[in-house]
Amino acid sequence: MKSARKTKAQLIKELDALRKINATIGTLLDLNAVLQRIVNEIVPLFAAQAASVILFDYAKQEAEITTVYGLQSQPDKSFRYPWHGSLAGWVAEHKRPLRLSRLLPSEWPTSAKLAEELGGSLETVSILLAPLCLNDQVLGCLEVVWDPRRDIPDGDEQLLETVATQVAIAIANAQLYTERKRGEEALRSAKEYAETLIKSSIDMIVAVNTDRRITEFNPAAEKGFGYQRAEVIGQPVDLLYAEAGPGPDINREVRTTGRYIGEVRNKRKNGEIFNVHLEASLLQDVTGNVVGVMGISRDITDRKHAEDALRASEERYRIVSQCISDYAFSFRMEDGKTPFLEWITDSFTRVTGYPTSSVLGESNPWARYVHPQDLERVNATIRHIQPNVPSTYEFRLLRNDGAIRWIRSSAYIVRDETHAVTRLYGAAQDITERKHAEDVVQYQRAFDQLVANISKDFLNLAPEEIDTGISRALQAVGEFSGIDRSYLFLFRENLALMDNTHEWCAPGIASEQSKLQNMATSTFPWFVKKLVAFEAIYIPDVSALPPEARAEQVEFQSQGMQSLVSIPLVSGKTVIGLLAFAAVRTTKCWTAESLLLLKVVGEMIANALERKWAAERQQHLHAQLLQTQKLEAIGTLAGGIAHDFNNILAAIMGYTELAMDDVPNQGLTRSNLEEVLTASRRARGLVQQLLTFSRPSHQDRRPIQLHDIVEGTLTLLRASLPKHIDIHLAFRTPLAIILADPTQIEQVVMNLCVNAAYAIGDHPGVLGIGLDYVEGARVTDPTLPSLSTTTAYCLTISDTGCGIAPETLSHIFEPFFTTKPIGHGSGMGLAIVHGIVTSHGGGITVESHPGQGTTFRVYFPPLGESVATQGVAMSPSNQELTA
What we know:
By secondary structure, the protein is α+β, with helices and mostly antiparallel strands. It is about 40% helix and about 25% strand. It has 23 helices and 30 strands.
């Protein structure tokens, strides 16, 4: 029905409603509130019984009623239903308005059933639906219902399309607002994470500004110094030092060298002096300007007391050992005679395993049991002993059973009244256990410092440097621990597979990394069960693994492992991988303290990986958003210009044809007019290309077999391609049916193949065309934002040509961008390909390196099973052809 001329009052009413709707979009960001306000305005505007907003889910082919006004029986929440056989489904598939003054329920069974559930009937109503279009994408539709039925004028359809455009804008605004809120939440989480690290640190963290006034004072500092944070913020940091001098000196050293490491005497609030190990470094803002200094300190009072006690004990022991020892001895030393061992206590046998009779009377008995590497030093020490001055020295002793013991020996020379040397008395003690204890303490301190250095390294790394930092950490721990191999595995596919992503090997140890990829975790049930339970796995001897770990034992021994430590990498409540350290050449023992520190290293690496992945996701999504916005803006601009230019061309061509009717068939004027008409037709073709890029047609879409389209296009291409180009086909799926415009798909294949041939040039080369069915992560890649399905058909077109430079790749889909010489291309080919593919709900990616060729992958969503089984011709599966 044609619309009657609207009265002034009607126009005012419509304008007022549109004004209210615009005001709603501008003032509200909550999507549900905006849509509810809009449908509330629509019902009185159209004098309708009800109105609703319906959104589309193309992946499930479902419609969802999100907002309703005016129904007698309104749903309590959003209502989803399959769109086949529904009015909304018709709009989703045809992407244009639907106006029905009278409806037959048999034609719309889904909508008829839905109406009954909501307390109505299709037989008594008239319905008008308008698609919610945004950037060539139909998000859903706007529905208006009249009961009793009535004729719907054209003016109502046009008005509803106008309102639908505003609703689509409201949805886009709400989505952008939601994304922005997510970004703000991510930044807030990062800040809270940094604050949590400071607050949860067991070390005292104090930060000062450039005036050396305190700006940060964490809970550990509160506990250590006895001050509350509020008491010291803004106060001079010298408040915390035992003496006035160290503070300025430390500040100068940090400003000069960038850091300070050393021991400092601090003072608690109650005046108690205590010692700390301090590490201080500069604080800089994002521009690199120095804003202060941060110090991380640890109370070492107990350690200092222990060291002082140890020194006192050693001194007491030194004095007592002159009289009491594990064994004592005496050498007879007379002028002109060779010294010899004249006396030794029986405890000598207990310490060394040798009988006393084997050394008595010997001039140099220690040559038999002193370690060869220490013998010369022991002899030199004895030769230089001064009379009446006790001399103490340590050496390694070789027992007769081959064991090595550490001995501390003291010697004293006695002179007679003529000052001639007569005897050398000595006492020796087995200090093996003390030496071992010292070694353990020293090792543990060094390991503790190593872990602290790794932590600081990760804190200072940019996200793109984290992989290098992990490799450095593996090397540092490996070299320090004296192991043969350290490596990192990451799980994927929901813990089904794991890959060796980082590895360090000691010199002379072969790398296993290339063999440890794509490994099924089900092969190692005992090992993985412990890891997913967050257990660290310590295997001192691989050959002694229990029977239930037989599979793991075989794998570890195939890699030459004798000992192994594996630490689970945990993100949140999920195990994301493992950190492992293996001994190949010999077995390796780890202390409980060392295992605890390895867990700390694992936590640091897991945190670093999380930070790296978060940064990569954010960077990629940001770049993808910018590129999408850029192409959308170019498409909108191109479409607008094309329409205006079409109007101008129509006038030029029309008046040119009229002028040709007024001039003779022969002559210069007619020839000139024909040239004008020819040029105008070329311009019209270019305009059509612009329109195809900005708004590809949807009118001729039907189920098609991609194999047939590709082979048909190649039939046309073979005649024009040079003979030196070989065409290789690889169809790896027997079925590739999609809903598409065959002419447009032919244009995609033709443009990509022609570009590939141009890239190969005059040199022999290969043009590869493949077709495959892909699913999972290969489809849900962030580089394919327009492809929402989890399965797709992938059309691959590759060449062995010159390749594309990295700086050019980001521009190739822009209209009029070309690297070809003038006259060899308009720059619209790939722009049109991109427009066609995305309008079909697909996606396109490109991989290229200069001199190595180019590969385009075009993804199309598959047609549903109900269409795919309608007798469409199939191509042979798994064919490998060479043309």
